[in-house]
Write a sequence for this structure.
């Protein structure tokens, strides 16, 4: 979001999900789309079926690579090298959209200067991708009219993740792939309302609608609207909060998040939580974090409350209560109001509609989206909800952004230089570890591991390791192994697979008994603080070999397979 707001002026997908099927070129980078975003992946599959060219840039072979024209299997953490080299080709071969650059962008010359040294030949040495493939990808992207970029945490969860976003944005701006159907730059949100949470101001630097808290005019507007004095000082980002636990921060209110499964370097966080004075947990089930909670507020699920969700494509949609919450559980907003009034706030909201109306009143991008207007969309099957920006009541919403010009005023080219990951393999830790999601479980698996069908499909944690690396360590498919980093170790089942490249291992994050985030690095991006979940130095050693007559994961395979993928060393 930070990179998109800086370069374009809006922190969301520039285009809509329905446009994907009509694209002619899809550049998917750092996204295991078919497992983490299966509905969006269906649209990509439709596009490929219609003749679109799909290029996947990812250190792993994933299902999407089986239908891709090219798999750019880059070395972990070398995204800037790949993207700057593509920019080098586009500029040096005069494939840029000069008219768009002249009329709608600024700072292009700085990027030209920065990428001059990033030749495809030099990039091949760093990324492991052939110079020929880099040139082909750059030329094809630049010369295809309907060309869109799709990315997610594989781009952002790095110590230099914002630089990765800037480098992608540079490609979009220099080719003019913005403000048109089936183009743009599209971060795929990994949870059902994370876009809405950001829209509402659940960040340390923005009020609702991406209005900076340190802007004097914005500050004055909200002080008048809310009738209270406000601080102009941005808050701590998530990584800073976790590192301040037990020191600067003496209390936590954790809502809908299992921080002891999802945060990096989690053993350090556990130690810090022992020094916290007071912890409140608000969730629908008890989770790992509940072990440290002083108070637990039982919350309601999505089906037990009213409100609005905003999805990846900026579509605001009504959510309606289907059933009553069980026991003492309440909707999140009701819990917060009860708590606030105990503290003397004297809040008097009667419904989520009241809260939402207050939010959109002072946020120009959402000002034209009311509950009443959202209700009207329900009479149009397949088109429910409204996409922001929607500044006035008579506005119908925005299918794709920047159609009449870049929202920022002019798109900002941002030169970036390659910086290596904070940890590189060495004699003690000879492998790169990356983590991510699988098809069958969702984030901390607070819900999905309670569902018998999903639990049966994927019952235990695992680590993928390449046959070459497995042979060096006398590890066979199905053996129990110990994965170690400088922060801790976990015991998991080994999956010997060519899906990972030599020198790399991969683990899912969903399993409390084998927490991948015991291992991950909490080094943060300089802009956002986002931790480097996607790459750190690790090692694997054999614990126990599996008997040859034992069937690994009976009756299922541990994630979605596709044509051309090798499940094991065979």
């Amino acid at each position: 979001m930070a990179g998109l707001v800086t370069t374009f002026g809006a922190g969301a997908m520039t285009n809509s999900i329905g446009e994907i099927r009509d694209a002619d070129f899809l550049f998917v980078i750092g996204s295991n789309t078919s497992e983490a975003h299966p509905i969006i992946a269906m649209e990509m599959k439709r596009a490929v079926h219609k003749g679109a060219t799909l290029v996947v840039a990812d250190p792993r072979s994933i299902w999407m690579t089986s239908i891709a024209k090219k798999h750019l299997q880059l070395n972990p953490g070398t995204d800037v090298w790949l993207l700057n080299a593509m920019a080098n080709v586009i500029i040096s071969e005069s494939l840029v959209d000069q008219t768009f650059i002249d009329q709608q962008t600024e700072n292009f010359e700085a990027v030209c200067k920065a990428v001059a040294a990033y030749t495809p030949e030099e990039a091949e040495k760093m990324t492991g991708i052939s110079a020929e493939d880099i040139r082909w990808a750059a030329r094809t992207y630049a010369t295809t009219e309907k060309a869109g970029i799709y990315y997610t945490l594989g781009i952002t969860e790095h110590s230099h993740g914002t630089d990765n976003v800037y480098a992608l944005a540079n490609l979009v701006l220099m080719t003019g792939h913005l403000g048109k159907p089936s183009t743009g730059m599209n971060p795929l949100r990994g949870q059902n309302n994370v876009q809405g949470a950001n829209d509402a101001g659940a960040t340390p630097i923005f009020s609702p609608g991406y209005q900076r808290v340190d802007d004097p005019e914005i500050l004055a507007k909200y002080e008048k609207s809310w009738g209270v004095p406000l601080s102009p000082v941005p808050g701590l980002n998530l990584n800073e909060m976790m590192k301040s636990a037990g020191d600067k921060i003496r209390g936590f209110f954790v809502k809908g998040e299992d921080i002891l499964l999802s945060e990096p370097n989690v053993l350090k966080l556990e130690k810090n939580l022992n020094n916290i004075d007071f912890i409140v947990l608000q969730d629908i089930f008890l989770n790992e974090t509940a072990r440290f909670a002083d108070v637990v507020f039982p919350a309601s699920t999505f089906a037990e409350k009213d409100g609005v969700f905003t999805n990846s494509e900026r579509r605001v949609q009504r959510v309606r209560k289907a059933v009553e919450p069980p026991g003492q559980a309440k909707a999140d907003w009701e819990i917060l109001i009860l708590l606030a009034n105990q503290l003397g706030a004297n809040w008097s909201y009667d419904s989520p509609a009241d809260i939402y109306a207050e939010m959109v009143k002072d946020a120009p991008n959402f000002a034209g989206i009311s509950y009443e207007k959202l209700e009207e969309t329900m009479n149009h099957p397949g088109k429910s909800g409204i996409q922001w920006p929607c500044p006035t009541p008579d506005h119908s919403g925005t299918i794709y952004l920047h159609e009449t010009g870049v929202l920022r005023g002019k798109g900002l080219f941002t030169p970036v230089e390659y910086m290596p990951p904070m940890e590189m393999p060495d004699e003690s830790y000879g492998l790169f570890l990356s983590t991510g999601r699988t098809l069958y479980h969702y984030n901390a698996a607070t819900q999905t591991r309670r569902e018998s069908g999903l639990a049966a499909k994927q019952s235990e944690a695992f680590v993928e390791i390449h046959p070459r690396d497995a042979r060096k360590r006398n590890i066979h498919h199905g053996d129990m192994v110990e994965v170690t980093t400088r922060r801790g170790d976990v015991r998991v089942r080994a999956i010997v697979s060519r899906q990972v490249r030599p020198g790399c291992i991969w683990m899912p994050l969903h399993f409390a008994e084998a927490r991948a985030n015991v291992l991950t690095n909490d080094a943060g991006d300089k802009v956002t603080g986002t931790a480097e979940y996607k790459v750190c130095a690790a090692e694997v050693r054999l614990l126990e070999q599996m008997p040859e007559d034992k069937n690994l994961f009976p009756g299922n395979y541990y994630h979605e397979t596709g044509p051309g993928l090798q499940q094991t060393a065979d």
Observations:
- The two ends are 42 Å apart (CA to CA).
- Confidence is low (pLDDT under 50) at residues 554-570.
